Each structure stands twice: as structure tokens, then as C-alpha cells.
Amino acid sequence: MSPPQAPAPLFLLNARLIDPGSGREMRGGLVTLDGVIAEFGESVRQGDAPEGARIIDCAGDVVAPGLIDMQAFVGEPGAEHRETIASATLAAAAGGVTTIVSTAATAPPVDDPAVVDFVLRRARDTGRVRVAPMAALTRGREGREIAELGLLQQAGAVAFCDGARSVRSALVMRRALTYARDFDALVIHFAEDPDLSVGVMNEGEFAHRLGLSGAPREAEAIMLDRDLRLVALTGARYHSAIVTTTLSLDALRRAKDEGLAVTCGTSINHLTLNENDIGDYRTFLKLRPPLRHEDERKALVGALGEGLIDVIVSDHDPQDVETKRLPFAEAEYGAIGLETMLAAGLRLVHSGDVTLTRLLEAMTSRPAEILGLPQGRLQKGAPADIIRFDPDAPFVVDPATLHSRSKNTPFDGALLQGVVRTTVVGGAVVYEE
């Protein structure tokens, strides 16, 4: 078999270039060559393009690093009816996501090096964008016995998380953090006390009006506070997967002020939606953690703007019709989000709550820094994972046109702004509008 040919040189001209990591913004062009960024800035001219190069006039659109989504379910192995790596990466490319960090919540779970290898091979053979697998923190994601973190890391796992399951035992969590510290591995944890969080939506007046059981915000804060104390005890690197309350934000601010190696994320859903959007029992908005009160949402947006919240994730969790078209209390948790994460995030930019550079930083350079990935920046020699998008172009979200195998979008029928025109991975165009 002959080796694959390198993509032709690519010239993106007449662009608004934004490098979120450095905060630089300029007008000009960008050149990719042999899979990396060869040049960018005002000096790039069409006349410099060699024979055979592809030239794209961006007509003033934004050109930025491709998005890195730190939490997405890709379906394989075991849930191909909900999603496949092929369909998930197509949806990602259409949404400007060039790297997916896949969750370990598969069947079997990603708790064995062979499963890590399977995900990487499937992504290589069928994927359009990069897939970086997370592995399980505990065997079987059961929270009782630590997984072989060292072997899983050698196999290609970029972080360790049990998905939307908290490790109940403080002793097991301490051992996992200590073990991970010795490998300089990143522990990502879903902080929620499972004994306290038994409701199906946020606890409060709105839940009472709907006649639904509520989960208190303290369920998140109690578990996160325990984790942060264990991080102080062990010195491990820790990332809170999704924070949704002011109680959690206060705890994280104290931990960061103390110099602990902690970071956190939140989902695009919790930044742009609140519990009132559930309306008349809309199951596509049944999420875990639940959508919170509007005051909590505003606090999250403020924390994102100041940098307390490090990253934004899609929390892409496809569910099929049989598990979502049910009474609210019986429906499964989860929503798709890969394809709409950027456009939904631009709501915050258009409202003046967050700058475009800060939004992109939380979706590109910051997750790259936390995970130790070379992507997520506009720099010479960096991987040519690039997106071109028009931040002002409007569109109505139609689930039928989304590329995910499942259609459970919380933005069904919403008017959003921000259309991805071109997605480039390793210098190759993998999606065009």
C-alpha cells in the first residue's frame, strides 16, 4: 500500500484571523503546507501560492483554530444505534470541531488498552476529525477499583473519567488521584453526589410547578468540595467536567487561589439555557447536571468571561427516539451538541456578555493546554486544524439537517447565528458548507 498523499497547499485569503491563545487578531491570510501552518498574517498574498495550491477567498470571515471538545459521546463501541464515530465526526466537522475527546461511557467501557486502540483505529479509518479517547478512571466505571491508568495512557488515553458517574468512595478517589499524579495524568470527574441528586430537574419553584422531583445544587458542591480537598492532599491534576452552580464556582475560586492544579468546564447548554426552557416538559432539555435557575446561568457566563471557567464542552450525548419520546421523568438524560456548540456560544458574543476571543479560547487553546495537545493555536508549525466561519450568518436549527445519527437537540427550532464555512484538519479540507 502506498502512503497517503499530503494535502495540497491551502491558501485562506482575506480573512479575519483570531488566535485565542495569544489574543491576537489581524486581517490577512493563512497558508497550510504538509499538514501544518506555514505562514499567516498580512504578508500572505495570492501571488505567493505555488502551482496546485488551493485558494479560498474568506470574504472577511473569521479564521481561527479548530474547536476542541473535551466531552463527547461517540457511540462506539456498543451504542452504534445512537452514534458512530463516522457520524459524530461529520457532525463535529460541520460545527467547526476538529478534535473530539471521547468519553469512556461505551459498552464495553474504555477501561482496557485494547478498547483505546479500537477507538483510535476506528477514528483513523472512519473519522473526519481527530478523536482523542478518554479512558475510565475505575474498572467498569463502577467506582470500586482503579483502572490501569499507566497502560491506558501508553495506549493513547489523554485523560481519565468515569463519564457521568461520580466516584462515591473518597478512599478510591484518593487512590486514583495519587496513582494519576505519578503518571502526570489528568483526572476528569463528574462531581455529583448520587445519593442526594435523585431528582430529574433542578430543585426549586419551577420543579414544584411542573410536579417533578428536583436535584439540589448542593449535590454538585458537596462532591466537588470533597474532590478539591483530595487534590490538596495528593497534588494531582484535576478537572471538574461540568460545573453549574455558584457554590461550585466559589469552591473552585478558592482552590485556584490556593494554587491547586485544578481546572473546570461547563457545557454550552448550561451557559445558554435555563430551567425555564424546559417549558412544557421538553425532554430534549432533560440533562445531567440539570439546567439551573437563570441567576446561576448568568453567574456561569460571568465566570467564563473572567476565566474562572476554563473550557466549554458540547456534552454531546445522543439519545434515540425511544428513550426521549417519553414522559419527562422517564426519559433519558442527554442532548446532542457537537454541531451547534459554536453557534450557541456566539449567542453570548452577540449579547455582549463574552468577547469572541474569550469564547474561542475556551473552545480551543485552553482545552489544548489542559490536555497537552499541540492543536488549538494559530502558530507557525502548529497542526493545520483550522475553521472558517461567519459569526453573523443566521440559520434556524432543523434536527432533520443535523449530521448526528440522533436528533435530540435542545435548540430544535432556535434561530442561531454563526455558520461554519470550512473545516480543515491536518491541512485537508474535511467539511465545506
Radius of gyration: 21 Å
Q: What is the number of helices?
A: 13
The CATH homologous superfamily of the largest domain is named Metal-dependent hydrolases
How far apart are the first and last residues' alpha carbons, in Å?
32 Å
Strand content: 15-25%
Please state the overall shape, judged from the principal axes of the Cα atoms. globular
What is the count of structural domains? 2
Write down the CATH class of the largest domain: Alpha Beta
Q: By helix and strand content, what is the structural category?
A: alpha/beta
Low-confidence stretches: none
Largest sheet geometry: 8 strands, mixed
- Provide the CATH architecture of the largest domain: Alpha-Beta Barrel
What is the typical, i.e. mean, pLDDT? 97
Quaternary arrangement of the chains shown? single chain
How do the SSEs run, as a string of H and E?
Answer: EEEEEEHEHEHHEEHEHEHEHHEHHHHEEE
CATH structural fold name of the largest domain: TIM Barrel
SS elements, strand count: 17
DSSP helix fraction = 25-40%
Summarize the structure.
This is Dihydroorotase. With 433 residues, the protein is an alpha/beta fold.
Record the SSE blueprint.
Elements: E1 10-19, E2 24-33, E3 36-41, E4 54-57, E5 62-65, E6 67-72, H1 85-94, E7 97-102, H2 113-126, E8 130-133, H3 149-155, H4 170-182, E9 186-189, E10 201-202, H5 205-210, E11 214-215, H6 218-234, E12 237-240, H7 246-257, E13 262-267, H8 268-272, H9 294-306, E14 311-313, H10 321-324, H11 341-350, H12 356-363, H13 365-371, E15 386-396, E16 415-425, E17 428-432
Parallel strand pairs: 1-4, 1-5, 6-7, 7-8, 9-12, 10-11, 12-13, 13-14
Antiparallel strand pairs: 1-2, 2-3, 5-15, 15-16, 16-17
Domain Dihydroorotase catalytic: 60-245
Keywords: Hydrolase, Pyrimidine biosynthesis, Zinc
GO molecular function: allantoinase activity; dihydroorotase activity; metal ion binding
